[in-house]
Amino acid sequence: MDAIKLAKNIVRKEIKGVINNMSQEEKVRQSDTVCKKVFDLPEFQSSERISIYLSTDNEINTFPILAYLFKIGKQVFVPKYNGKNMMMVRLHSLEDFDNLPLTKWMIKQPNDNNREDALKTGGLDLIICPGVAFTRTGKRLGHGMGYYDKFMNNYYKCETVINKNPHLIGVCFNEQIKDDIPTSESDVTLDKVISEN
């Protein structure tokens, strides 16, 4: 297990260095292309309840996806972190998004406890996942906290959403695609990974 952990950290460090060296213009250009590709996915078009992460500067910018989801009337859910766990809670509008507070990691996140929890109200049709590195076959390396893997493993066991498995889509820069990445048994495989290339 320690060998896998070490191997994962080496990949994380390598990718972080590569992304830090990318220009802002290049990040914007790739983000725009990836967002358009997401809009064209049949899984995206047919889904009603969609979860999306709220991006940082070193990730594909998901704001255009968020804005488009509200524009076309989809139900939007975003991550809310609580200790070592994550839940997906409802976001109602762009104004709601603008009013979200920032965490210590400089990520916008709901901090109130009266939001609709996706797992209690019918699950999700599609989850757009962040990550540090991906393979074309759907392997994903996260930031090391295991939030998404834990969330999905809990999702599959949750009785309120039985037989409703969401499509899992990773979005990333070209530079985040690797031929292979180290994974553990608890790591969830994605259905698709979308990059510019």
What does this 3D model show about the protein?
The chain is of the alpha/beta class and 197 residues long. Helices cover 34% and strands 18% of the residues. It is built from six helices and eight strands, in the order αααβαββαβββαββ. The strands form two sheets. The chain has a six-stranded mixed β-sheet, sandwiched between helices. It has a two-stranded antiparallel ribbon with strand order 5-6. β2 (75-82) and β3 form a beta hairpin. The radius of gyration is 16 Å and the shape is globular. The relative contact order is 0.19. The model has no long low-confidence stretch (mean pLDDT 93).
What is the topology?
Blueprint: H1 2-20, H2 24-40, H3 42-46, E1 49-52, H4 63-71, E2 75-82, E3 85-91, H5 94-98, E4 126-129, E5 133-134, E6 140-141, H6 147-157, E7 167-171, E8 192-194
Parallel strand pairs: 1-2, 1-4, 4-7, 7-8
Antiparallel strand pairs: 2-3, 5-6
The end-to-end distance, rounded to whole angstroms, is: 33 Å
The helix count comes to: 6
Number of strand elements? 8
**Estimated share of beta-strand residues:** 15-25%
Rg measurement, Å? 16 Å
String of helices and strands: HHHEHEEHEEEHEE
What is the arithmetic mean of pLDDT? 93
Taking pLDDT < 50 over at least 5 consecutive residues as the criterion, the unreliable ranges are none
How are the strands of the biggest sheet laid out side by side? 3-2-1-4-7-8
Largest sheet: 6 strands, mixed
- Share in helix: 25-40%
- State the secondary-structure class: alpha/beta
How would you describe the shape? globular
